Amino acid sequence: MPPEPAPGNVEKRQTAERHVHQAVQHDAAERHVQGSAPYIDDVREPEGTLHVAPGGSPAACGRIRRLELADVATAPGVVAVLTARDIPNVNDVSPVAGDDPLFAVDRVEFQGQVIFAVVAETRDAARRAVARAIIEIDEEVSLVSVDDALAANADIMADYAFRRGDAEAVLAAAAQRIDGRLRIGGQEHFYLEGQAALAVPEEGGCYTVHSSTQHPSEVQHVVARVLGIADAAVAVEVRRMGGGFGGKESQASGWAAMAALAARLTGRPCKVRLDRDDDFIMTGKRHDFIAGYRCAHDLDGRVTAVAVDFASRCGYSHDLSSSINDRTMFHADNAYYYPDVAIHSRRMKTNTVSNTAFRGFGGPQGMLFAERLMDRIAWALDLDPLDVRYRNLYGTGDRNITPYGMTVEDNIAAEVMRELETTADYRARRAGIAAFNADNTVLKKGLALTPVKFGISFTTTFLNQAGALVHVYQDGSVHLNHGGTEMGQGLFIKVAQVVAEEFGIALDRVKITATHTGKVPNTSPTAASSGTDMNGMAAKNAAAEIKARLAEFIARDWQVPVSTILFGDDQVRSGDQVLSFGEVVKKAYLARTHLSAAGFYATPKITWDRPKATGRPFFYFAYGAACAEVTVDSWTGEFTLDRVDILHDVGKSLNPAIDIGQIEGGFVQGMGWLTMEELVYDAKGRLRTHAPSTYKIPTARDVPADFRVAFFDHANREATIYRSKAVGEPPLMLANAVFSAIGDAIHALNPAHAVDLDAPATPEAILFACEAQRAARGG
Amino acid sequence: MTRATRPLRFLHRGQTVEIDRFQPMTTLLDWLRIEKRLTGTKEGCGEGDCGACTVALGRIKAGRLVYEPVNACILLLGQVDGCEVVTVEDLAEGSALHPVQDAMVRHHGSQCGFCTPGFVMSLFTLYQDGGAVTGGREAVLTRIAGNLCRCTGYRPIVDAALEACAAPAGDVFHAREAATAQALSALADDRDVLVGDEASFFAAPRSLDGLCALMTRHPDAVLVGGATDVGLWITKQLKTLPRLVHTGRVAELRQVVDAAEGLTIGAAVTYAEAEQALAAFDPDVAVWANRLGSVQVRATGTIGGNIANGSPIGDSPPLLIALGATLHLRRGAAERSLPLEDFFLAYGRQDRAADEIVTHVVVPRPGPDDHLRAFKIAKRNDQDISSVMGALKLSLDGRRIRAVRVAFGGLAGVPKRAATVEAALTGLDIDDRAACDAAISRLADDFQPMDDHRASARYRSLVAVNLLRKALAEIVSGRRDETRISHLRDAGHAA
Prior knowledge:
The complex is a heterodimer of chains A (779) and B (495).
Chain A: H1 29-32, E1 50-56, E2 62-68, H2 70-73, E3 78-82, E4 107-108, E5 114-120, H3 123-130, E6 134-139, H4 146-151, E7 160-164, H5 167-173, E8 176-184, E9 196-202, E10 206-211, H6 216-227, E11 234-238, H7 253-266, E12 270-273, H8 276-282, E13 289-297, E14 303-315, H9 321-330, E15 340-349, H10 363-381, H11 385-392, H12 413-423, H13 426-439, E16 443-456, E17 465-472, E18 478-482, H14 491-503, E19 510-512, E20 515-516, H15 531-558, E21 566-568, E22 571-574, E23 577-580, H16 581-590, E24 596-602, E25 607-609, E26 614-616, E27 620-633, E28 639-648, H17 656-675, E29 706-711, H18 736-747, H19 763-777
Parallel strand pairs in A: 1-12, 10-11, 14-15, 18-19, 28-29
Antiparallel strand pairs in A: 1-5, 2-4, 2-6, 3-5, 7-15, 8-13, 9-10, 9-12, 11-20, 13-14, 16-27, 17-18, 17-24, 21-22, 22-23, 25-26, 27-28
Helix pairs in contact in A: 6-7, 9-10, 10-11, 10-18, 14-15
Chain B: E1 5-6, E2 8-12, E3 15-19, H1 28-35, E4 54-61, E5 64-71, E6 84-86, H2 99-106, H3 116-129, H4 131-143, H5 155-165, H6 172-175, H7 177-187, E7 192-196, E8 201-204, H8 208-217, E9 222-224, H9 230-235, E10 243-246, E11 256-259, E12 262-266, H10 271-279, H11 283-291, H12 295-300, H13 303-308, H14 316-322, E13 326-331, E14 334-339, H15 340-343, E15 344-346, E16 349-350, E17 357-364, E18 370-377, E19 388-397, E20 400-409, E21 416-417, H16 419-425, H17 433-440, H18 443-446, H19 457-477
Parallel strand pairs in B: 1-7, 2-6, 8-10, 9-10
Antiparallel strand pairs in B: 2-3, 4-5, 4-6, 7-8, 11-12, 12-17, 13-14, 13-17, 15-16, 18-19, 19-20, 20-21
Helix pairs in contact in B: 2-5, 3-4, 3-5, 4-5, 10-11, 16-17
């Protein structure tokens, strides 16, 4: 059992700040536990609301020979049936490339691709009517897997590469070479609230859309595009999502557009809430990858050259695959220096749903490859994999330039790992595990300690901007709004802490309000872990602007220098003159002071020249390390995670309770991806694991009782919001330690042979890898 | 129906709700969310796998008021007859949160909050029955095995549960227990529940005679045990089932008779009710029981339903077949019985007429020379469907294998015995490892499994052989700790 107190019981910290750096509970926590925090489907429906259900393609690829919807239209409760012909403007709901039709026309390109939708009086009536459609497809051979697409040379976009030095030459001349291939599975988001949108027609051809989306501005643009109306005629509101994880970044737009189209055609409010199976089948997932690699290294285990070829399943359209695959390349180094390097990426077109953003955004796949490389080198040289990892870390003065030309200025990977090595008692446990493995034939234990280094900023540079809107009312209460969305990650409370801190007022004086395109326009998605960094700064800037006006006013009123005015403890003071914040606000209002401000923030320092593959795409890096111990049953392939130690860098935590939640939750989600979550498509491109009955995410028992999580508590070297660091995505990759630990356990069956284990490490994958070890030993 | 019938009646928010008209396929979740506008209870999957829709049902069992968690998304409204329905909206008293809710808030147990009401309700039932007082962390893990959270990683939820439930101080539900019990007793009667007409009805007869008569008149009616499968026909397959007959009120089908020679388990006995008696057979059965569905599923799903629907991957048939169970059926007044394995004819086909009713199963108790092993292979420990489910009962005469019964699910279109392996093992010296291994390898003659999304044929074949090797190795060594990862060794003190 863990001796330390549970990490979530974060004590109130003794700091100079009253709100920031404090473990404040999630703003909606009390409503969550009472079921009184409404999600889209819980909002009381406007009178006359209709329900929309989509009808998808039964086949993965081919021409639509027949689409017979007469029976659908006459089904009980049906009000309208929508197809592409009903779209007044552009049949496209894509984020970038213009290649995602709302309704397929003539051809379908994946099983489940939406062809029509039913609008009915009840959701049940709509769903039952959908089943009455007759759809006949002239099926063509579909490309389902990455292998299929590679064999057909079906690239959906141009390939891309980072190169430094002459990796091929070094590889050709190398004495120590490792070649291999790693297959990395995809992942379904399984946000607990599925995709949902409610569109309400307003006067003058306007629409209000309530959407469960991470990207309200994009929903606005897509709805306007499909309906052929001005962006300004569409208002999108998001109070909360029941989870997002990237799955509602680009792929919430289509459902909102479908609801809006239905609303336009019927003149009534219309709601879409996907059935879970439809959500699995019709929305994109994490990209699965094949990483083919060659590596040269010296006898100490230091990499001298790496050449890696990534190929990913993008699905039938572009979606965000360009940036996602770029991020795989940006993170193919994880925390390691590759002297001569060639990182090549192919983005494959398949007849499957268009894969999309998912926490880590391509990074996890690149980093898993890097960890496999370290394990392979260690196995080849009979070294402890941890020592190989240390030897390959980026340096602090030299060996610190990434394959894309960015200097790593803030490298703390070694410090984090050394500290965790000590606190996790790595060396002693390594010896204990060796003894256990010598004594056991069926059960084998494994241990691994792996680092995380994750680049923070959108690599699409223009997205690194955010806005906020702050109003101060006459009673001194504050209305807070910003462009970020709340999906459970605690963004709203963190930004509220920042604003309360800035004004020096109680947290409950700051009213958190729903994200709304009418309040803050042109927002970036809440993604890339950037929500707090950017919206926190924008809100701070807005509050600071109002505060400056208040200070200027009261200084004048009191006839003191502005520099003497202090805000704090719900008061404004200068020397012995004191008024409550509310009193100052009231006086300022009567003196005709502007008490509202729009704040803005653009991340500094970042540049990226994609054609030249050079620049500084990231403002900074977030670091972390995890140590995992597993026991594998080498006869069945089952495993158990016995203990996990995590040390993670969140800079100076803005909210330790929220940040611990992100670390633990991210780790467990990553563990699910790497061990049990398996997307299985059949040969015809039909997803066979399309519900939680067949697609398994971790449950409470999969999380070890011995789970020790701590912060690496140092301020961000960059001037971020209160020197904190982004925390949404980086912890997911801590789970790479679990995958490496499983490999380590299997390796014990035959230390002379490198383990060939792909992700996810299901019981089947583990047992086959065990069999291969035994076979290589000769029985 | 000849006997006096009555409408649906249940307790909700302290009031008796009586409903004399509803569509038979209506789920409890739809009634709550659409009819009553109580949207605290969420739909996450619509198939009873995520637990976001968890509500508590209060019932009198063995003279005590018991609250059990159920998945409202696949529970038919008619099934709540005679129960108290408690939802997440009912826990807080004004602005005072229930201790479970309060602990969840203080431990930061919610992030997006969508799964939270379901967790709160599962933990509410744990608070009520005190399962965590003795069972501790294991009891918590078991209680929330059917609740998926995608945000938190569960640790804060488990901490909150331990704090609130390991020493429950008592809440208003405890305080008004007697009043609730009295109200529930007032609802109990021997009348048949019938809502609807001949064309479309929900019926819950009280007696076996009444059930048989009803099925004779309506052989096309669908028999519903716990609806953990039939519920999905409605929510996922969108079938139209106008006539539904629920077995849950039939007194004769609700009995477990625990006798020296074995157990008699009525068809409408839930997994939860059967598992306590069965688990005493062997630690493996306790583990098996803990991994069968979730607490929500076990509170409603029935042994009879699991057998009658004939799934090749149901978890109970392989174990019951290995134990040598006999199945009993009744059609009209005609009764018959057969070895359980003979009931499963082919994939999707059972030896049961449309109007025939599975009444009970008789399970012989293993003797002192019998060794029992049960193994479930799945991608996830909890609440998963088996890729392979294997069970073995091996009877020793000294060191000689006198008799052995081996049954597998997931290897064929039906749960099936490994006849060749059984014959090959019989008579061998259990310490003759080479001979036993050779016998086990004959499994390929018994089964030619299939590839599907749960596992490949190759894996199924390999792991099935290894499970038999493991069973024999354990029987020889007398220990399981060298061959089992920790949570498969015993079910702890889980409630």
